[in-house]
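Homework help board

Subject: predicted structure for assignment chain

Our instructor gave us this sequence and asked us to write out the predicted structure in token form, then describe one feature. I got the tokens but I'm not sure how to describe them. Can anyone check?
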Amino acid sequence: MGESLSTISDAELEVLKALWKHGPATVREINAQLRPLKRRWAYNTVLTLLTRLREKGYVASEKRGVAHRFASVVSREELLRRKLTDVADRVCNGMASPLVHALVEGQQFSADEIAQFRKLFDELQQAE
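My token output:
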């Protein structure tokens, strides 16, 4: 999936997050998963959001009996990578380091997270 993804609305992103968290689901199941988040959408609203996400290439659907099951085809990490690359391209002339600095500056990271960062940087350095 090298092509860029279409922009998604906040509502579409909430539905996508439910799919990431709970896995493939029907419209009714997704609607039930969104209720604790204070989303009281009608069935047709959730269906419309899923249809838009499918048209944009974020989810796929499969008919199971009378209902369709929807599944994410783009992981959270892939979406994040693409969106950050887009920001780096548009705002930082394709350079990632100003973006990384902006994300890291002022944040508190656990020792485990810092160890993961070091491991990633070591792997990137060895790949050069």
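Reply (TA_rk): Your tokens look well-formed. For the description, you could write something like this. The longest strand covers residues 59-64. That's the kind of observation they're looking for.
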